Amino acid sequence: MTSAACHGDWPLRAQPSSAPQSSQVEMEAERSSGGGGAGPRAAGSWRRLWALLLAVSSLPAATALVEGLYCGTEVCYDVLGVTREASKAEIARAYRQLARRYHPDRYKPEEPGAEESSHKKFLLIATAYETLKDEDSRRDYDYMLDHPEEYYQHYYAYYRRRLTPKVDVRVVILVTICAISIFQYYSWHSSYNEAINYLMTVPKYRIQATEIAKQQGLLNRTKEKGKNRRSKEEIREQEEEVIRDIIKNKIDIKGGYQKPNLTDILLCQIVLFPYYLTSYMVWYVSWVYRFTICREEYGDEEKLYIIRRYMKMSQSQFDSLEENSKQTFLEKQLWIKEKFQAYKKDQEEEMKVKMATDPRMKRYRRWMKNEGPGRLTFMED
Asked: What count of other Cβ atoms lies within 10 Å of the Cβ of residue 247?
């Protein structure tokens, strides 16, 4: 009785942990049942153990042929009829032969309904060739065949290659920079032409340009006879063009409406960036050496630079100021921080007084107080 119980208990302890729970309950029930018949119970346990081992052995092994990746459940080498050691030329030759055979324009199946299967066959052949003709794609595919258990790695490599842009990112960046540079130059050129057109309507600059043109003999009208005689409109257009050219050449327009320069666009700025950086480093070291170590006195150029930094203005904005204003800054010694702060405070107070006494500002404050934006009022009519 004891021997039979022991013989019946060994396969239960050897039972894998993955056995179904119902089978374990049933075997435990057999163990707990006392009395004779231990031999039949042991035989039943052996039968169940063998059935479990057969079920585990019949589970599908890890496979690299996954539906949706590359050639799906087909091996790309078998689709083209080549070995894994085949060269590029052999793969291309096998693809051309199969493509000529299964191309939808040439392949005419005898059986009805076989056209769809031939089309799928042709697409499978094309997919296999696209997979094996590229070295990187073929390397990833061979790795998938050799390591079928790394499912997530295979999915990542496959979709990374398919979703990666085909165009080089550097080319995209270069084209974008060129487009921005062209737009910059065009907008600056348009602003410059608008400034010239406005200055031509200002009497002060127009009279000065007319006097310069007369001194240079550009507006001296000669008597024209015969066929060469021009109309008044043509003569007026020529005079306007002469005045325009003089304003362009004689008047130095600064600020946002200055004449466009190619070195100011983004592309040239990026190309010349190493030069600008080197120049700035040399200038900074020279500044520290001259004015911090050697204690030299500031010149007018250095003083104006410090003033511009205190005012937080760009170089183009500072250049657009009149020379009288710059001279006033130098006379007030605004490169000294304490004097600049006092000057700034005085300017703020002056602005407050001006806004308080300006009739337009008074009307504006009255309008904001009585009506203001968004207030609903009745129409007068």
From this structure: 21
| Tokens (6 digits) for 67 | 């539906």
Q: Tokens 């949706």, residue? A: 68
Confidence band of 224 (pLDDT split at 50, 70, 90): low
User: Which tokens belong to 138?
Assistant: 């073929």
**Identity (one letter) of the amino acid at 105?**
D
- Within 8 A by CB and 6+ apart from 7, the residues are 38, 39, 42
| Tokens found for residue 116 | 């769809």
Highest mean pLDDT among 101-110, 249-258, 273-282: 273-282
Per the CB < 8 A criterion, the answer to whether 42 and 7 are in contact is yes
Helix spans in 14-68 (H): 21-32, 38-57
Backbone angles phi, psi at 75, to 5 degrees: -85, 130
Q: Which phi and psi (to 5°) does residue 230 adopt?
A: -100, 160
Measured in whole angstroms, the distance separating CA 75 from the mean position of its chain's CA atoms is 39
The residue assigned the tokens 């119902």 is 22
Radius of gyration for the alpha carbons in the chain, expressed in angstroms and rounded:
45
What is the rounded distance in angstroms from the CA atom of residue 306 to the CA atom of residue 286? Answer: 15
43-75 confidence digits (pLDDT tens): 555 666 555 444 434 434 345 566 778 888 889
pLDDT at residue 34, as a whole number: 44
Q: Are 377 and 371 in contact (CB under 8 A)?
A: yes
Residues in contact with 298: Cβ distance below 8 Å, sequence separation at least 6, in sequence order:
291, 306, 335
Q: Is 158 within 8 Å of 175 (Cβ atoms)?
A: no
Q: What is the mean pLDDT of the chain?
A: 76
- CA 172/CA 166 separation, integer angstroms: 11
- What does the alpha-carbon distance between residue 153 and residue 147 come to, in Å, rounded to a whole number? 10
CA 2 vs CA 11, 24, 35, 109, 274: distances in Å: 16, 21, 10, 74, 93
CB contact set of 219 (below 8 Å; sequence gap of 6+): 210, 213, 239, 242
